[in-house]
Amino acid sequence: MTTKLTSKIKSEKPSKVDLKGLKTRTRKIIQLLKRAYPDAKCSLNYSNAFELLIATILSAQCTDERVNIVTADLFRKYRKPEDYLKVSESELQNDIRTTGFFRNKTRSIQGAAKVLTEHYSGRVPETIEELLELPGVARKTANVVMGNAFGVASGVVVDTHVTRLSRRLGLTQQKDPVKIENDLIDIVPKSDWVIFSHLLIAHGRKICKARNPLCAECVVEKQCPSSYLKTGVIPGS
Ligand code: SF4
User: Fold this and answer.
1) CATH number belonging to the domain at 49-149, selected among 1.10.340.30, 3.40.190.10, 1.10.10.60, 3.40.50.1980
2) Nearest CA to 154 among 175, 129, 133, 174?
3) Average predicted confidence (pLDDT) for the chain
4) How open is the CA angle 214-231-40, to the nearest 5 degrees?
5) Is-above-0.70 flag for pTM?
6) pLDDT-derived band of residue 176, with 50, 70 and 90 as boundaries?
7) Quick one: which atom of ligand 1 is closest to the CA of 207?
8) By CB count within 10 A, which of 55, 117, 209, 219 is most buried?
9) pLDDT in tens, 3-16
């Protein structure tokens, strides 16, 4: 997978000198976060690539905790893509209702299951290009599956935590997830693309919360331009 995933998208890129400093600061942040969260990993429960694909589709606008509750029963009832095609839309909607946006998610899951059954003999394809062709699968889901199920760094997963922390840490000025990812792949070493989002998500949940981030307890405070210890303004307030 090319690292220039959005060559058509123009973003405000730092100069070469700034980029070098930004890369150094990013490496320092990663090092500190690795020390703080040595066990950071995907918090969705799954036992194969297909289950991770379904769990990630369900995780849109929903907590991983809630998704894990729903998939505990769901993965017992539906084991293969074709199982999702044997039930009516309304039955699947009921099974995933508590994850929210259940109508859209049902369409995505049954659409993806149909393509996997008809074109991939029920297997999940192992390239990001093929994953992105599946209904309801955008870059975040494709990157989660590639990185966690197949161990391939295809990009950086950008969710709400990664968006918030990357912006607060001054790693990007962008708001659009694809543009944020484009900025991050320029400054995060490729070997850390997968762990990077797990680290930011862990830190976002525990310390750099959306409201009232705990800057005084933050291990990357010295590297952070948004710290209220420096600015006097609480980020997100
Ligand atoms: S210093 Fe504050 S704003 Fe910056 S990363 Fe830490 S908790 Fe978040």
Assistant:
1) 1.10.340.30
2) 129
3) 94
4) 35
5) yes
6) very high
7) 7
8) 55
9) 444 443 445 667 77
